[in-house]
Amino acid sequence: MPRRKRNAEPQTIHHVIQRGNNRNYIYENTRDKREFLSILTTALTTYDTVLLQYVLMDNHYHLLVRVGDQPLSDFVRLLNRNYSLYYNQRYNRIGTIYGDRYKSYLLTEKEKFFSTVRYIVRNPVKAGLSPTPAHYLWSGHASVLDKASPIINRTELLAYFSPDEDLALKRYVECTEGEGWTAQVGFSTIIDRRMETEERLRCLFDRLLSERSLMGYQKMILSGATTKLSRELRNTFILLAIADAHALKDIAAFLHISHETVRRIGKQV
């Protein structure tokens, strides 16, 4: 299957995820993480990209970025290439350190933005690496709280929560640290796992149609239309969703088709 074009729309916000090859570590120690952040800073400046949040885990990273006028793919390519060169030289190895192309999710709604910020910040807590988001050293969360980050655009990040900085910070803390965050006026409650799965599928679905300039076909495909184009788009989406590690039952529910249909199409891989 040919590679899909990345969304190149300027001034858009993306959640970027990159994992290590076979889920191996891409950071062995503190020095590696510091070097990655240094390379990340250079890539941000080179491609006029704004970093809104990040977390470095041992075998993957998450970035929340707003691109400038140049494609997201150029920014990520520079970041991954330069860090791979550093890592291979440091550990006397060759070959890729990453498992596959990076994953990216275009965020077009505030609800998705808030849930993504929460997801990124709470990743170390979910993995059992830190008791709270603020205790984890390798994310941008603590620096947002104490205004210490030279790499995150704190002002732009908080502006999504409120134009008033004090209220914005209060809402940000509620969003990221609250166990059962309740929506404020104009905000949506952080979504549960089922809704998060549906959001990820919707984002993947919209990206597929957007890249082919076929956004008008959303309802037709989800209504079970059997035209040649609808079947081709549906089947392509199923393969993409399976590659993105979605459960067959979730894909079937999203498309309103049977689990067996998804399983049969998935066997083509």
Task: Characterise this structure.
By secondary structure, the protein is an alpha+beta fold. The protein is 49% helix and 10% strand. The chain contains twelve helices and four strands; from the N terminus they run βαββαβαααααααααα. The chain has a four-stranded antiparallel sheet, sandwiched between helices. β2 and β3 (60-66) form a beta hairpin. The radius of gyration is 19 Å and the shape is globular. The model is unreliable at 182-192 (pLDDT under 50).
Please give a quick description of this structure.
This protein has 269 residues and is of the alpha+beta class. The chain has helices at residues 30-46, 72-90, 110-121, 123-126, 141-146, 154-159, 165-177, 193-211, 218-222, 228-243, 248-255, 259-266, and strands spanning 13-19, 50-56, 60-66, 103-107. The longest helix has 19 residues, at 72-90.
